[in-house]
Amino acid sequence: MATTSIARHLDVGGRTVALDPEGYLVDLDDWTPAVAEALAAEEGRTLTAEHWEILDLLREFYRRYEMAPAMRPLVKAAGQQLGPEKGRSLHLMRLFPESPAKVAARLAGLPKPTNCL
Amino acid sequence: MLLHLLNRSPAGSRLPEDVLRAMGPDDRLLLIESGVYGAVSPQADCFKTLKGRCYALQDDLSARGLAERHADWIIPVDMAGFVALTAETQRTVSWY
Amino acid sequence: MSDDTADRPLLVILRHAPHDGSWLREGLDVALVAAAFGRTVTLLFMGDGVEALRPGQTAGPLGQKGTHPTLDMLAMYDIEDLRVDAISLAERGLSTAELQWSATPVTAEQLPAVIASAAPVFNF
To answer: Which residue segments constitute the domains of chain C, with CATH numbers given?
Structure first.
């Protein structure tokens, strides 16, 4: 669940977006593609088409199921929608190192996945 | 063999029927907390098929004024008896 | 209490209806966490829990989230083994054919074995 405590703000093209202590959006409605770019830029990442297909997939997952997926269902969803070579944790680890389910959910403007470590 | 724990009274709840249906032929039932109201007649009647394997926690009976009032075929157990029951059974399933 | 649980399915018994406090949601959360870590999970809908399978559910009157999107999501977590207590279903005038999610009916005779063969068992 999104937390309501504001830890800091992110400036996105003159607009101020509130972030919680873990860097997730406080108000999920604040999300725009530019917010994702700004969050990624903070981490020294540039979003490529491959990143975007995962972020789009995540936003669709959340729209349908009202929950951010843990790693296993994220891998499964990627495999179903993007093909078997992208439905692998290695692919996701390469795009969103360390903790793909969490990092990608954050960039996609979703709450933190509750069902993973 | 499983030990089922039930902590609600039979009156006003369908839970006992569900528990009875879920129990295997050797499983035991221990009534705890408000569940011990089910140890007293006529509520106890719904557990009659469990004669010999239906228990009620002594402290919970006493606390509710039921120490001497439970049906004679319901077996009261103290905490040591509770522990012994859990040791005899493979697992415990709680119903609430 | 000592038996080998590694190759048994983890069983979550769901006995509360949608929009009735957080029992159903919490039960589903336990199932999702276990599945996310690779455990084989069986869900058993019993009592009012069978209402979770009824078609046509929506969010609550104040916009409270329902559990139906989570039921839709179970397959993504590889939770495919849904069982439903046949008597509970009949008591509520429901049949497996009309349920929104396919669930295997469990007869009164089969029920004890479903519970005894799983470990651990979580009851919500």
So the answer is: 10-123 (3.40.1260.10)
The token pair at C42 is 């069986």
Task: Give how many domains chain B has, as a whole number.
Answer: 1
C120 preceded by cis ω (within 30°)?
yes
In this model, does residue A30 exceed pLDDT 60?
Answer: yes
Other CB atoms within 10 A of residue A116 CB:
21
Q: Residue A28's closest CA among A64, A68, A57, A65?
A: A68
Active-site annotation holds for A117: no
Which range is least confidently modeled, A16-20, A27-31, B9-13? B9-13
Beta-sheet pairing, C121-123 with C104-106? unpaired
**pTM for this entry:** 0.88
Residue type at position B37: Y
- Give the tens place of pLDDT for each residue, C110-119: 999 999 999 9
Put simply, the answer to whether C47 touches B90 (Cβ < 8 Å) is: no
- Measure in Å the smallest separation between the Cα of C4 and chain B Cα atoms: 10
Residue type, A98: E
pLDDT averaged per 10 residues in sequence order, chain B, 96 residues: 94 87 97 93 94 96 92 96 96 93
- Residue pairs between chains A and C whose CB atoms are closer than 8 Å: 40
Distances (CA, A) of B48 to A83, B20, B62, C10: 59, 10, 22, 31
Domain coverage including residue B69: 2-95
Contact C15 B18 (CB under 8 A): yes
ipTM reported for the complex, 2 dp: 0.89
Q: Are strands B91-95 and B2-6 parallel, antiparallel or unpaired?
A: parallel
Q: Is residue A65 exposed (0-12), middle (13-18) or buried (19+ Cβ within 10 Å)?
A: buried
Structural domains in chain A plus CATH codes = 8-42 (3.30.1420.10), 49-107 (1.10.10.370)
Q: What is the pLDDT of residue C3?
A: 52
